[in-house]
Design brief:
Oligomer: heterodimer
Helix content of chain A: 40-55%
Helix content of chain B: over 70%
Order of helices and strands of chain A: HEHEEHEHEEHEHEHEHEHEHHHEEEE
Largest sheet of chain A: 9 strands, mixed
Radius of gyration of chain A: 22 Å
Structural class of chain A: alpha/beta
Structural class of chain B: mainly alpha
Distance between the termini of chain A: 57 Å
Strand order of the largest sheet of chain B: 1-2
Shape of chain A: globular
Number of helices of chain B: 12
Number of strands of chain B: 2
Distance between the termini of chain B: 45 Å
């Protein structure tokens, strides 16, 4: 390379470097690290769609600063990639917030980076309890698996269900759900008559369902990833006549994810789940969210689910921090604002616990019903102010 | 107790039938044509989407969508065979693997672009749902249907390959393309038709499998292991091999998961290892 060319590049680079901070002063940059392609592509798409919905509704300027989203695609569980993106976003793009994180391993890998850089990190989905303990700059606006599993146990006991069989997918979140459900259920005097962990790649549930049927419990508690596993289990449950044998199917709301509920079809009717958000939640905030979601996004994206709602709340937190700090984002000050923050989300009243930086929220008990000809998770009972019992 | 055994056996046979349905197309392309076609699942996915779209958007009855799925996947197969696949017949297996795996990723991206990343809705017609009660036992209707389809399919394929003129042309062309061409067989045409048959079967399997396996753009990758499992255990070059392999794997998988749930997910793979040690060329493999 000629010396002249080298000098030109050096000058150009210096010029860009000088420009960057000046530019940064007029914007608040949010680095969104999530899964935008691969098998978890829906996660990133939903989170981003929720964020865009918030910006559509509230404008893209807050405290005199323009909000800019910079998205990075981890393509799936890729801790090293997520970490590299976080480093690049912080050092090169100088983002003031990191957000997104559909999957736990990616969030875990980024936590040490934000501790060092003092950049607030908002978890928009990843649901393993311990993530928020990994850095004082991490907060979560979504939920944890124990947080939605414990209320299901409480509700079952309250409604005369004393014997339960548990079936969970054999991976982190499944085991979290099983552990918490069993703990809460036994503490309340219930009996777990059998447990099954099914492989994560499991196209056929006939054996598992037959075992449950033979054990004749009052109910079966299920945690399976939304998508074909949930569909397959629910179909098998109906086909084998477990409901007719008097066995109830209870689960956390992952299985009847609003985004895939239509694809799961009528077999889900009557399914009872516990979860923090339903698109059928009846409140002005949710109506506003659904309208903004439809306005801001392509119809092809499909129905919003809890991840979109969490994306929306992620922006709520960022806007609130920006307002309180007058647009000058500082990591420590931002975290001070976030701790104890309370607002009314599309899902209902929520708060960030000041000690754990994790979300406190109402968990609803819902039943799948037809509403205006469409399947919906209709809330009929609730347990207010649930903190993450996993900590 | 006896009821349990019969129930497990029935579920196992039904699951094995499903494995056979999704893998039989591959045993045609890989087994008869000796082409390592890892993109088999992509053709199955074509069939799956054709079924779902016809049912949900146009209201075509499920049973009628199946032959259409077969034809659609066969047409896609023949187009790709003429334009791409035929260039790689003489390439090494590694080239074929790289090419077809590339095709898998492209098919995933294309399906995501047009239909989104989420699961497609699928509702079987009422007469294929539920269970029938027979001698005090319950049998799933769709599972009986799968077993019947597999029986019919096996007889038909066996007949085509062993008894028809086309079948002998295929076998001749695969064994020695030069000699076959010398005898006046249009080898290109035979290969194109065979490939279309394999792709069509994949499409049919895709359509039949959605109810159990679901359908989203990652389908070709997610179930690739199962296709390969059946064909490698069964051995290439016959229809009987994959059929027996699929049924054995199905029965043992269901039995393992029912009687030994702690290790249930592992049984199918352990069995594969054992069978491949005992029969390195597959159960009915052509020994070369």
């Amino acid at each position: 390379m000629s010396h002249k060319l080298l000098r030109t590049i050096a000058f150009a680079a210096a010029g860009l470097a000088a420009l960057a901070p000046a530019y940064a002063q007029n914007t608040i940059k949010v680095g969104v690290i999530a899964e935008f392609s691969g098998p978890f592509a829906d996660y990133g798409a939903q989170i981003e769609a929720g964020m865009k919905a918030y910006m559509k509704q509230h404008g893209d300027t807050v405290a005199g600063k323009k909000i800019e989203l910079i998205t990075r695609d981890t393509k799936g569980p890729a801790p090293d990639v997520a970490k590299r993106f976080a480093q690049e976003l912080i050092t090169r793009d100088q983002v003031q917030f990191l957000a997104g994180f559909g999957l736990t391993p990616n969030a875990m890998a980024v936590a040490p980076v934000v501790t060092e850089a003092k950049v607030p990190m908002i978890i928009s989905n990843a649901a393993t309890s311990s993530i928020t303990t990994k850095s004082p700059y991490v907060t979560r606006v979504s939920m944890t698996i124990p947080q939605v599993s414990a209320p299901m146990a409480e509700w079952a006991l309250k409604n005369g269900i004393k014997q339960v069989y548990t079936v969970v997918a054999d991976y982190g979140p499944g085991i979290d759900a099983e552990t918490q459900f069993t703990k809460s259920f036994k503490a309340g005097g219930g009996e777990v008559v059998g447990t099954l962990r099914t492989p994560l790649q499991n196209p056929d549930f006939s054996a598992a369902i037959q075992r449950v049927k033979d054990a004749k419990p009052q109910a079966v508690f299920v945690f399976l990833p939304a998508g074909e596993q949930g569909i397959s289990f629910v179909k098998g449950f109906n086909e084998r006549g477990l409901a007719a044998a008097g066995i109830k199917l209870i689960a956390t709301g992952d299985i009847t994810d609003d985004h895939v509920l239509a694809a799961m079809g009528d077999p889900t009717l009557g399914l009872i789940t516990s979860f923090h958000y339903s698109a059928a939640h009846d409140s002005p905030e949710n109506a506003a969210f659904l309208k903004a979601y439809a306005d801001a996004n392509d119809a092809k994206l499909g129905a919003p689910n809890f991840m979109a709602a969490a994306g929306y709340d992620t922006m709520q937190v960022i806007y609130e921090v920006a307002k309180k700090l007058g647009g000058n984002i500082d990591g420590d000050k931002a975290m001070a604002v976030i701790k104890g923050m309370k607002w009314t989300s599309p899902r209902g009243p929520v708060a960030i616990d000041a000690d754990t930086r994790d979300i406190t929220q109402t968990v609803y008990i819902r039943k799948v019903e037809k509403k205006n000809g469409k399947l919906a998770n209709v809330e009929f009972d609730k347990i207010a102010d649930v903190k993450d019992p996993g900590k | 107790m006896i009821g349990n055994v019969i129930g497990v056996l029935f579920d196992g046979l039904a699951y094995g039938s499903l494995l056979f349905i999704i893998a039989v197309g591959l045993s045609v392309t890989l087994g008869l044509m000796n082409f390592v076609n890892l993109a088999h699942g992509a053709f199955a996915m074509v069939g799956g989407y054709v079924c779902v779209l016809l049912m949900t958007r146009l209201g075509v009855p499920f049973l009628l969508t199946l032959p259409i799925a077969f034809v659609a996947a066969a047409v896609v197969g023949i187009v790709l065979e003429r334009t791409l696949y035929q260039r790689l017949y003489k390439s090494s297996h590694l080239d074929q693997v790289l090419f077809s795996i590339g095709l898998v990723f492209m098919s995933i991206a294309i399906a995501t672009y047009f239909f989104g990343a989420s699961q497609q809705p699928m509702a079987l017609p009422p007469y294929l749902r539920g269970q029938v009660h027979f001698l005090g036992l319950d049998f799933g209707v769709y599972r009986i249907f799968l077993i019947v389809v597999v029986a019919a399919l096996t007889v038909a394929l066996q007949y085509i390959i062993e008894k028809t003129r086309f079948g002998s042309q295929v076998r001749a062309s695969v064994d020695n393309a030069t000699a076959a061409a010398g005898l006046g067989i249009n080898v290109n045409r035979v290969f194109a038709l065979t490939f279309a048959l394999g792709s069509g079967l994949a499409g049919l399997g895709g359509g039949l499998g959605i109810d159990v396996l679901g359908l989203d753009p990652t389908f070709p990758l997610k179930y690739m292991v199962y296709f390969l499992l059946v064909v490698s255990v069964g051995g290439t070059g016959t229809i009987k091999g994959p059929l027996v392999a699929a049924l054995i794997l199905g029965v043992f998988d269901v039995a393992g998961k029912y009687y030994l749930p702690q290790i249930g997910g592992f049984v199918i793979y352990a069995l594969m290892v054992v069978l491949l040690i005992l029969f390195p060329a597959g159960l009915y493999g052509r020994r070369t």
